[in-house]
Amino acid sequence: MSEKEEDYIKVIYQVSKEKGFARSIEIAEKLNVKPSSVTDMIKRLQEKGYVQYEKYRGIVITPLGEKIAKKILHRGRVLKEFFKIFGVRDDNAMEIANKVEHYIDDDSFERIEKFVMFVDSFKENPKWLEHFEYFIKTGILPDCDRIDHR
Fold it and tell me: pLDDT tens for residues 34-67?
């Protein structure tokens, strides 16, 4: 599935979640594309079974499309948190996550997801994360124990 298709499915899901359907004009506005581009993509997505166009109602996401949209949105949330752990600004973290979510393989994503869960499980920042912040600010590696991975 292409990055564009994923973006369309995500937007259709988000818009239709609010009112049960999406209109081409809403999708065009959110994706900053021409309505004619939306029409072409909707045809393609409908052929693949991700959406259904209903005359006089609009575009409805199918269960298959919803499953994909939820997966993409979940990846985006986790990746955003991953970048924020390292001090990336919220808006920048979201922008990067939206790009990476399309290209990351399942195994790499799973490791990142577990890493985010691991870091979130600490009541306070882990010591190594404080060491990292110190290094970013000063450029000096603090004294710390190293783990031997051999």
Answer: 999 999 999 999 999 999 998 888 999 999 999 9
Give me the chain's average pLDDT, please. 92
Reported confidence tier of residue 79, pLDDT bands at 50, 70, 90: very high
Token reading at 58: 């609009």
Sequence-distant (6+) residues with CB within 8 A of 83 are 92, 93, 96, 97
From CA 9, how far away is CA 61, in angstroms rounded?
Answer: 8
Question: pLDDT tens across 53-62, in order?
Answer: 988 889 999 9
| The two structure tokens encoding residue 141 | 């590696």
Query: Could you give all domains of the chain from N- to C-terminal order, each with its CATH number?
Result: 3-61 (1.10.10.10), 69-138 (1.10.60.10)
